[in-house]
Amino acid sequence: MKCFGEHWGLEFSREEIDRAKAAGGLLSLELELSRLCNLRCVYCYAASGLARPDELSLEEILSVVDQAVALGARKIIVLGGGEPLLYPDLFTVIDHIIGRGADADLFTNGMMITPEIASKLHERKVAVVVKMNSRNPEVQDFLAGHEGAFEAINRGLDTLMAAGYPSEGRSLGVETIICRQNYDELPDLWRWARRQGIIPYVEMMTMQGRATEHPELEVEPAAVKDLFERLAAIDAAEFGNHWTPHPPLAASQCARHEYSCTVTSTGEVQPCPGVSVTAGNIREDSLAHILRKSKEIQELRNIRQNIKGKCGQCEFGEYCYGCRGHAYQVTGDYLASDPLCWLENAEENGLKCEAK
To answer: Taking the model in full, what pTM does it have?
Structure first.
């Protein structure tokens, strides 16, 4: 049985994470290229659309990659703070990442995927995650803020699969935000993804950016708990995957604050997109120095010792520390207990997990 005790859903082993922490280094880095986007997703954490006037130059972006790799980063995640495929030098960045010996992950809405782009991604073994929130055209177009998004996103997925995704060393995922509009269909979307070898990244929405303008999107924690339990049952019965339901990600867990950080399109270094506090700017200081001197980064590097409230007493604390983005956006304190976590009373809810 796979569960917390075997680090189900972790990108790196506990030993690798501990070594990176001790060295003050990184295992991965999340990198924004631009806030320019061809969609206006109603839940977008970055409220993307137009490029910022002071965005990083290509040379500055490549320097960030170099600094991250020098600190031990083995993966650079090109975020969809905007749409990366709109960035004219995307493949220059990807080739630089690979040339430095790191893996490249790409988050995209998929609408601009052509056979040529899919082939280039496949050739470079780039892991691709497509933002897809619904298999219903009307719901998908509403959430994307763009008529025709459903058709274009699915065309992009089909093109990636025609190019050979998913396959050995070339993973394909779909990122799905839980909201009221897509809630009922998510078990079927999960099955659809699993049956095609696509990794479903189903996650709770962080109330920041454009999402704060759309309270109609919110789903109550009790309903999210029920959904995660249903997805866990489906995964166990139909696909042989066993995991303990807990926020904010289904079938996964977040430990990014112990070994990663985010660099925005304007050079700000943040703990993650959800914990949107600025630790420094790479135009003013080196990445290594920012990580070393930042109070926020250091507190989150040692989150399991610093976390407050019931999260600090949770029986799952060795493996889970809730969502720091939820804590920060709701309470203003990234060390607070996750206010949307139902595992605060895990034993009462019958959510025990015994590793085997």
So the answer is: 0.92
